[in-house]
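Why should sequence recovery work at all? Because a backbone constrains its sequence more than one might expect. Tight turns favour small or flexible residues, buried strands favour hydrophobic ones, and helices have their own preferences. The token representation captures these environments compactly. In the example below, the structure is given first.
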């Protein structure tokens, strides 16, 4: 580009950067000294020139780029104008803007109410609706009543005059009023009611047909294909049973039936809502109401597919690890797998502890990948659950810990005859928090495990099978009776009692020498503690018979002197009425 200079000579428009670089190169050439065949640039003169060059280069480059870009200044965008639609039944007539003092939604709702009031008053003809001009607005009037006022700002968005916009609005309002009245006429409502009844009948008929089709398909599957369904095997290992396969097939058929039922119900419901003006708007948006949550759910699932895949893989791995762990501890419990020093009774509680730890570990690992785990609501729920658990489970936790301690201490096991405090019975169930006992009276006693751990337990079954359980009973006999005779009679009573062990043999201890009598203790052995109550009863019967037979009186605790007659039961009175002689009982029972 060539310009005329002040002297009339052409002047070339040289960019400032090129001009500067040319001047700088010329200065550098003039400052070069030749030494031999090599040009030499004095260092003290060249360094400042180079620094100035680079500084000016950076400044001018920035200005040149800014000038060449020609970027217009940023103009703040105009705020979006808030609008709201005027809706009558299922028709959207037009949209109106609002102001800070009169929001668009309130303005549209007020105008819609005025139109409904005019439409409900059949005395007002649609032809009587007019347009009135004022200084600042154009009004659509129904007689003396104003329906809507249109200002210049309303028409500015469509770039037309407010008078033209008012005529457009007037035509829409007249059409809406006519449709409003027609839809609410007795003929239209009766026609909608009849159509609704037809739809209801069709819905019932469709359900009946769908049910018959489902039953037919199910019967055909069961008769033709159920016998052909086989379990899924990997060599000899069955990992999906035939019942599970058949349940999956029938479950898929039921799912299809449910989906078809919902589709039919939706179609019929949509039709019925569309027959009446009050529900026609709901019918128009019914699909949106149904699909919006589904779409939101689907969008959330798509956004969280990587996290959900991680959780799914973790769940599958955890599940199969728990199955393998259960097989391992089941083998220990059934004694097919023996580990030295590990009691088979520990297998089940140990499995429960390990299962809990594995599940807790899996939950901790999966927690960051759960959708919404970082939301305040999720954290609030977690905190609430933690507080409730910590406040309400102190006694439960103590009972659970006590239950495990009782198990690992081998205090008792299911089937043992025990005495816990004042309760004696058979252990029927050991749970994490409580232990169930069944007494000899067939009563169920539920004892908290923490109470068992804090008290004392008498286990009658621990040594009964190996060493025998000792039953003992005491009698008080006077000093005039030889102790050897007393011991012989007590041992005779033990020999007559069935169910007692012959080895070890019964023995008698002289417990004390009292003021009026000697206390003798008879000790016998049994191997079944569950019959100890019956054994005691039989033993006491035989002791009474033995002492009565040999004329020895058993002293009472309140003994003060010898009575005139000995407190004995002679043999001829052993079977006094209503008791029956032993021979008669034997004949009736056939023994």
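From this structural description, the recovered sequence reads:
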């Amino acid at each position: 580009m060539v310009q005329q200079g002040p002297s009339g000579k052409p002047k070339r428009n040289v960019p400032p950067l090129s001009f500067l670089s040319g001047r700088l190169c010329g200065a550098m050439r003039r400052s070069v000294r030749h030494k031999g065949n090599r040009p030499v640039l004095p260092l003290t003169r060249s360094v400042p020139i180079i620094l100035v060059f680079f500084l000016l280069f950076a400044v001018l480059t920035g200005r040149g780029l800014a000038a060449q870009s020609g970027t217009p200044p940023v103009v703040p965008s105009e705020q979006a104008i808030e609008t709201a639609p005027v809706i009558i039944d299922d028709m959207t007539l037009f949209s109106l803007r609002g102001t800070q003092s009169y929001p668009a939604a309130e303005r549209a709702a007020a105008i819609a109410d005025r139109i409904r009031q005019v439409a409900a008053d059949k005395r007002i003809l649609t032809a009587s609706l007019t347009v009135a001009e004022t200084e600042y607005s154009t009004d659509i009037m129904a007689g003396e009543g104003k329906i809507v006022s249109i200002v210049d700002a309303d028409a500015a968005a469509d770039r037309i005059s407010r008078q033209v916009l008012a005529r457009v609005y007037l035509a829409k309002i007249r059409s809406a009023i006519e449709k409003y009245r027609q839809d609410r006429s007795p003929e239209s409502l009766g026609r909608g009611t009849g159509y609704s009844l037809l739809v209801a009948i069709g819905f019932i008929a469709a359900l009946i047909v769908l049910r018959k089709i489902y039953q037919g398909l199910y019967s055909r599957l069961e008769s033709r294909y159920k016998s052909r369904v086989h379990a899924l095997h990997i060599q000899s290992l069955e990992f999906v049973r035939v019942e599970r396969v058949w349940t999956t097939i029938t479950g898929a058929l039921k799912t299809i039936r449910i989906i078809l039922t919902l589709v039919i119900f939706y179609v019929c419901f949509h039709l019925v809502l569309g027959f009446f003006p009050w529900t026609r708007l709901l019918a128009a948006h019914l699909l949106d109401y149904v699909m919006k949550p589904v779409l939101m759910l689907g969008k959330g699932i798509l956004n969280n597919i990587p996290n959900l895949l991680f959780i799914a893989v973790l769940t599958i791995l955890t599940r199969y690890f728990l199955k393998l762990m259960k097989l391992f501890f089941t083998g220990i419990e059934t004694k097919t797998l023996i580990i030295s020093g590990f009691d088979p009774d520990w297998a089940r509680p140990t499995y429960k502890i390990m299962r809990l730890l594995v599940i807790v570990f899996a939950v901790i690992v999966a927690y960051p990948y759960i959708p919404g785990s970082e939301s305040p609501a999720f954290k609030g729920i977690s905190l609430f659950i933690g507080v409730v658990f910590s406040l309400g489970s102190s006694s439960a936790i103590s009972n659970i810990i006590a239950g495990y301690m009782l198990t690992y201490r081998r205090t008792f096991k299911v089937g043992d005859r025990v005495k816990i405090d004042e309760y004696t019975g058979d252990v029927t169930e050991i749970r994490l928090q409580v232990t169930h006992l069944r007494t000899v009276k067939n009563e169920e006693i539920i004892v908290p495990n923490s109470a068992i751990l804090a008290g004392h337990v008498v286990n009658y079954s621990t040594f009964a099978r190996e060493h025998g359980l000792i039953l003992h009973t005491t009698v008080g006999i006077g000093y005039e009776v030889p102790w050897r005779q007393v011991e012989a009679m007590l041992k005779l009573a033990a020999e007559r009692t069935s169910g007692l062990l012959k080895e070890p043999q019964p023995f008698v201890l002289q417990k004390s020498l009292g003021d009026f009598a000697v206390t003798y203790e008879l000790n016998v052995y049994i191997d079944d503690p569950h019959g100890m109550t019956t054994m005691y009863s039989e033993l006491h019967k035989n002791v009474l018979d033995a002492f009565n037979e040999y004329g020895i009186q058993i002293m009472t605790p309140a003994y003060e002197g010898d009575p005139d007659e000995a407190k004995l039961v002679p043999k001829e009175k052993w079977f006094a009425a209503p008791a029956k002689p032993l021979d008669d009982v034997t004949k009736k029972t056939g023994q």
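A few observations help interpret the result. Residues 1-25, 27-78, 231-239, 585-591 have pLDDT under 50 and may be disordered.
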